[in-house]
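Handoff note, outgoing to incoming analyst
You'll be picking up this chain. Sequence as last confirmed:
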Amino acid sequence: MSKVIFSVQYEINPNKREDYLGVVRELKNLLKAEGLESYNVYEVKSKVNHFQELFTFSSLEAYEQFEDDQNERINILINKLSDFTEGHSSKYTLLNELEL
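Most recent structure output, in case you need it:
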């Protein structure tokens, strides 16, 4: 089975940075799902307050199951994250690993 990476890129409001970091910490502690191999958040080195979240799943089926089975607290945190973003800066990407 091919791995899947789901990526979310966005810029946050500089005044909300500490709130954002707190939500991401809590989210990282809660995100434990079958098939979710890792969840990491990166800040773009050359752009302060520009972040990228990377979710690595063991398969497309694991990604789809994750989307269907999120608990209420995780949904609340994900909605909070969108409240911190600037304008329409969010970009979503779904990558399927090639089996070579």
